Every structure is written in structure tokens, then in C-alpha cells.
Amino acid sequence: MDENKNRDEALFTALDKGKKKKKRKRIITILIVIAVIAAALVFAVRNLQAKVRDAVSSQSASVLTWVVAYGSVNTTVSGSGAISDVDTEDICVPDGVEVEEILVEANASVSRGDVLATVDMDTVSAALADVQSQLADKDKEISKISAKAASDVIKAGVSGVVKIIYAQPGDDVATCMVEHGALAVISQDKYMSAVITTDALSIGDSVTVVRENGSELRGKVDSTARGNAVILVSDKDAMPDENVTVFDEDGKELGSCALEIHNPIKVTGHTGVIADVLARENQQVGGGTALFRVKDASTASEYSSILKERRELEDTLSALLTIYRDGAVRAPFDGTVLSIEEDDDSSSQSTSQDTSQNTGTPSYGLTDYSALLTGGTTAVSSSSSSDASSSDSKEKKLLTLSRDEQMSVKFSVDESDILALEVGQEAVVTIGSIGVGEYVGTVTEIDRTASSGSGVTTYSATVTFDKGAFMLSGMTADVVITISGSDNVLYVPNDAVTRTSASAFVYTAYDSATGQFSGPVTVEIGISNKDYTEIRDGLSEGDTIYYTKAQSDFWGMYGFGGSSGGGFGY
User: Fold this and answer.
1) Which domain holds residue 13?
2) 159 with 135, same domain?
3) Looking at the domain assignment, is residue 215 inside a domain?
4) CATH number at residue 539
5) Distance of CA 404 to CAs 25, 469, 475, Å?
6) CA distance 372 to 321
7) Which of 143, 171, 390, 443 could disulfide-link 425, Cβ–Cβ 3.0 to 4.6 Å?
8) Do 177 and 255 reside in the same domain of the chain?
9) How far apart are CA 110 and CA 335, in angstroms?
10) Strands 115-119 and 99-102, sheet pairing
């Protein structure tokens, strides 16, 4: 019995020992896990602290200071483009003149009077004779047209006083009729009318009408209707649209108005050109009196066309005489040869074709040099864009000559800036390839025709400036145009200004130990450009502010705050 009891006790003891052993192992395992977790937490905290220290140190190193001072803040429009010569002229010889040799080369500098090319003088003489013959033919045509020119008259249809004359010598009849509805207006019954709003007058009442010059006219009420009274006065002196004031017999003012022709008769026409005006305003005329002399429109047009052709021949004659006198083609001014025309059949072309290849600059007509024939100064013919379009004569282009006075640059302008540009605005031009000097130019053209590409809309503007040494067509120029600006104002960097929906502020203190900005001061800001902002109120000259160029990613990541221009949040 005892033996069994002892076995049971031994068994229970063994079981109890096994349980205790397992419990100890479990506790040890838990303690190990806790220790590992604690070690990991310690490592993470230390690592985080190190990162914080590094971030604060980095932030401190990137904090910038600015001492507030006075200066200028300007908003600008800028761009760049290739420069080109502005004042260029095509040097040409009249058709029929044979060029023997061009004596200059491209990019050569020439002085006024230098020989540019030699010509066959026999061909110059032949061309002179031909042009003189053409001039004689034009004179005959003009004489024939003058002899057959039909002259007509426009007459008054009724008797009366001419009160208004619209048409003047040289006016087109149809155009005058469209603009005014008449060539002239006649007062048929010799009365002017004044219409005033009043209920104090009756038909037949006498009134006094005072003119602008203070003189008085006697008037009588002709009719009344709907609160208006029509008063008639003599049209002897009074004129249409003249302001008058009406008084009753007791001297009481009744109203003011502009005089009108009471019974107007319009003088009309439909074709032709006014040659002469045969009447005058306030003239008494009878029915059938001639008022205008009119030339037939078709004859006038033909006459003008022939006169224009004759003037072109005169220009050609002047150019030929200049070459004949000088014995060669000479430079009309100091300048640079920009290009030489190829010596082939294609070089002989109409003046209009020549000018289309020009740089778009004005050129001088042949008559510009006609006065030089008697002055002993050399000159040559130069293509004229104004006369070229209607000229049937041909010229041979020899070369293009620049006066070396001005250049221009055309550049693109963003759609947000184009409306801020105006012709006449001053611009600063720099050309990097020839140095750092600045040239003052002027906006001379604004092209508001849109150009779109890659989803961007742009326009263009042209700036003209004086030509400087070493400038060559094709060089790249940078242009800056000041649109608005403030001078002698306090200003700070844009990065230093923190903007909110309602205000703006800057930081005036910084703690390098904590990496915290402090001392925020609300400021009133003015204009800004890409770098600086005007401060109108809130700061004084000499104040120091603190800011960073950009906030740290670490601080933003962990939610420690930040601001658009002042570093960390306050």
C-alpha cells in the first residue's frame, strides 16, 4: 500500500518538475523577445535623434539672412532673336544698262561716292534716248486726254439759298454722296427752324431767337404738336446746327436748340470727280444755276494713271543722267555691302520683285537723287517700294547696301505679356557674342497675330536700336523691356515672404539650436518680379530677416511644419 503511495508521489513530483521547467522556458522566451524589442526601440530612437540633429544642423546651415535696404523692383518682358540690318537699300540700274563689273564684295565698307560698278556708257546713252522718247509719247497721251476730257455741271433744281456745301474739288461724287447724302443743301423757302419743347406757345406767336454771337432774330411759331413748337427765322445769316435760345415777348427763356433748314433741298450726283465748286454758302441761286463742274470719272482715272507712268519715267531719266554724269554706279551713302546679286538672267527683274527680297525696310526712290545732278555729288538709283508695285519698267539689282545706322531684333512674346507691350517702349539689348555692353532700343512693331505650338500661344515684337561696332546680321540678341517698376523702395527676396490667403509675413528671428523661425512680422507687399518683392509697410531699412531657399523634405515628411518662404512653421 505504502509502495503504491510512494510511486504516486514520485510521479506527481516528476510531473510538477516538468511543468516548472516548461514555465521557466516560456518566461525566458518572453524576456528574450522583450529585450529584442527594447533594443530595437532604443536603436530607432537613437537613429531618429541623429536624423533630427542632422536635419537641424542642415537647416541651420541653409538659413539665409537679408538686411532690408532700398532699391528698385521692376517687372519685365524679355526674349531673344537674331538681329538684322534695318536701313538697307537695293542698288539697281535701269533696264537696258549693261553692267561691266561690280567692284565691291559682300561685307565691304564703302563711302559715299565710291565706285560700286562700271557700266557700258553706250547702253546708258541708248537708254536715255529711249526714256526721252517714252516721255514724249506720254505727253501726247496727256494732251489727247485733256482735249477730250468731258466736263459736266451739276445744277440747282430749285431757287433758294445754298446753306451747306459738302463736295470740294477733287472729291469723288459717289463717295461724297455716301458720306453726306448730298453734294450740297439748298434752303428752298428761305427759312431756318428752331424746335423747342414747350406748351407756352401757340401758332403765330412772336418770339426772340438769340444766336451764339448774341445777335437777335425775330421768329414766329409755325406749328405746335405734342408739346413741341416749330419756330421759323430768316435764313439770311443763320446757319444749320447753330445753337440758339428762344425767349417769349416778356423775355422769359423758353428753351434752346440747334437750327435746322426748314425746307431743305438736296443737290445730288452719282458719278465723276468734282473739278470746281461754282457756288458759295448763303448764296441766293435760281433754278438751273450751275453749282459744280464735274469731270468724267473714267477720264480722270486714265489721266492719273498716265501721269503716274510719266513720273516713273522721270525717275528713270534722273537715274540714267546720274550714271551718265558719274561714268559709273557710285555709293549714295556711307555703308556696308550686305550682298551681291548673281550676274545671270535671273538678276534682271521688276522693281517689285527686288523689293520683296529686301529686309522690309524703306528704300529711297529715284527722285531722291535727282537734285544731286546739279550738286556735283554722286548718286545711283535705288529701288523704291512705294513706286514699284505699279511700275512696268524693269531694273537690274546689283547689290544691297546698308547705311549701318540701325538694326532690329524680332522675338517671341508670351500671351500673358503681349498686352503689356506698346510701340515706343524703351528696351535694353545685349549681344553676348560681341561683349557685355548694353544698347538702348525702342519697340517699333508689335505683331498680335498668334502663333501656336506644343500647346503654347506666342506673339512677336520688334525692337530697333543703333548699330554698334562688330554687329553682324544673324547674331543673337537678348532683349529686356521694363513694363512697370518702383524705384527707391524697400525690397526683400521672394523666398523670404510667406504668403497666406489674407496677408504676408516674414521672420525676423531664428534659433539655430531648435531650428525654429520666430518673430513673424506682417508686411504689406507691392510689385514682384521673379527674384524680389517690394515691401510697402512692416519693415524698416536695416531690419534683418531670416529665410530658406526651400524647406527640408525630412521636416515636411514628419509633419514638423513648413512655409513657402520662411522655413519651418511658427
Assistant:
1) 1-62
2) no
3) yes
4) 2.40.420.20
5) 102, 10, 15
6) 10
7) 443
8) yes
9) 5
10) antiparallel
Cβ pair 222, 193 in contact under 8 A: yes
Q: Quickly state the pLDDT bin for 346 (edges 50, 70, 90).
A: very low
Q: Is the pLDDT of residue 291 over 70?
A: yes
d(CA 230, CA 260): 10
Exposed, middle or buried: residue 373 (CB in 10 Å: 0-12, 13-18, 19+)? middle
Alpha-carbon dihedral of residues 374, 377, 379, 384, nearest 10 degrees? -70
- Residues 134 and 185 grouped into a single domain: no
The answer on 257 and 180 residing in a single domain is yes
Report which residue type is found at 171: D
Question: Above 80 in pLDDT, residue 17?
Answer: no
pLDDT in tens, 390-419: 344 578 999 999 999 999 999 999 888 888
> Would you say residue 292 lies in a domain?
yes
Beta bridge partners of 246: 209, 255
In 3D, which of 399, 376, 337, 404 has the Cα closest to residue 113?
376
Is residue 127 in a domain?
yes
* Residues 194 and 283 both lie in one domain: yes
pLDDT in tens, 254-270: 999 999 999 999 999 88
List pLDDT tens digits, range 23-52. 777 777 787 778 778 777 877 777 776 665
Q: What integer pLDDT is reported at residue 57 of this predicted model?
A: 53
If asked whether residues 239 and 167 sit together in one domain, one would say yes
Cβ proximity of 519 and 507 under 8 Å? yes
Is there a single domain that holds both residue 227 and residue 178?
yes
pLDDT at 193: 95
| Residue with cell string 554724269 | 325
- List C-alpha distances in Å: 448 to 80, 390, 457, 459: 17, 30, 11, 6
Other C-beta atoms lying within 10 Å of the C-beta of residue 69 = 11
Neighbours of 356 (CB within 10 A): 12
Residue 552 within any structural domain of the chain: yes
Confidence bin at 7 (pLDDT 50/70/90): low
What is the three-state SS of 130-179? HHHHHHHHHHHHHHHHHHHCCEEEEECCCCEEEEEECCCCCCEHHHHHHH
pLDDT of the residue at 37:
83
Residues 6+ apart with CB under 8 A from 278: 153, 290, 291, 292, 293
- Convert the pLDDT of each residue in 169-192 to its tens digit: 999 999 999 999 999 999 998 899
Angstrom distance (rounded) from CA 208 to CA 220: 9
- Give the chain's mean pLDDT: 82
pLDDT for the residue 11: 60
Domain count of the fold of the chain: 4
Same domain, yes or no: 228 and 287: yes
Task: Take residue 454 and report the three cell numbers written for it.
Answer: 506644343
- How many alpha carbons lie under 13 Å from residue 421 in its C-beta half-sphere? 29
